Amino acid sequence: MTRTPENLLDFTCYALDGVRAQAPLVHCITNSVVVNVTANALLALGASAAMVDIPGEAGPFARVASGLLVNLGTPATEQREAMFEAVEAANGAGTPWVLDPVAVGSLPVRTSLSHTLKDLHPTIVRGNASEIIAVAGSGAGGRGVDASDGVDAAVSAAQSLAERTGGVVAISGPVDVVTDGRGLVRIANGDALLTRITGGGCALGAVMAAFAAVDADRFATTVAAIAVYTVAAELAAERSAGPGSFQPAFLDALAAVDADTVRSRAVLS
User: Fold this and answer.
1) pLDDT at 114 over 60
2) What is the pTM of this model?
3) What is the CATH number of the domain that holds 48?
């Protein structure tokens, strides 16, 4: 597929239908703060979620799951062991997996963990600009989960990281960027309310894993996941008075968003 905005928009509509038709099962090893939010986002979209994060179960489950999310938000010792077990199994089974390097750079345990995991060839790496720069080894990270760098400042690091992993890198921000080291696409949708609820970014990593399960073009599936997710955020924001009403409205919007709405609202360049 030629990666024009028009073709990627067509693909996004196809992939959204594919997620709902196939209901991919996403194996989530994620942080304790966002488990419920992540599961509900997947269910609302039409996918399925399983939070299997203990050694002895993580590997066998990753072999049968449609996609895997590895989120470093609260990396306790047992969960870290489960991450490596799941990643090894996913790589062996050809299961796409997403690395979300939450708050890396300034915190030593997760930073070391992210560097080891990135060498295991994640299908997709997703993070804010400071997290991507830190994983790429080009900076010290942000302020916890908050970025201290702009998206454009992370583009070169993202391209370098994509070349090293052989996968796709997505930078989240006011305008999201997706690159595989060669091509680059920007998605200019979303709403600031996503940053004012717990798990707005973490759940996106799981949605990327769901979309990656429906087609082998993981660059295009990553663009599609972001476009659908951020268009849904816009719809939810229009119906919300603030963060408290936004969160349930966002789940409703993920369930309701359709190809026609995405086609009319997504801004790809």
Assistant:
1) yes
2) 0.95
3) 3.40.1190.20
H-helix or E-strand spanning residue 80: helix 77-93
**What would the pLDDT profile of 200-250 be if each residue is shown by its tens digit?**
999 999 999 999 999 999 999 999 999 999 999 999 999 999 999 999 999
Q: What is the DSSP letter of 57?
A: T
- Residue 172 is classified by DSSP as E
- Angle 69-71-72 (CA atoms, 0-180°, nearest 5)? 155
Number of structural domains the chain divides into: 1
Beta carbons within 8 Å of 2's beta carbon, 6+ residues apart? none
Percent of the chain clearing pLDDT 70 (strictly above): 96
List C-alpha distances in Å: 181 to 26, 48, 165, 255: 26, 30, 10, 32
Q: How many CB atoms lie within 10 A of CB 54?
A: 14
For residue 19, which of 237, 205, 189, 258 has the smallest C-alpha distance?
Answer: 258
Task: State the residue for tokens 């998605």.
Answer: 187
> Which range marks the domain in which residue 169 is found?
5-265
Q: Is 21 exposed, middle or buried (0-12, 13-18, 19+ CB in 10 A)?
A: exposed
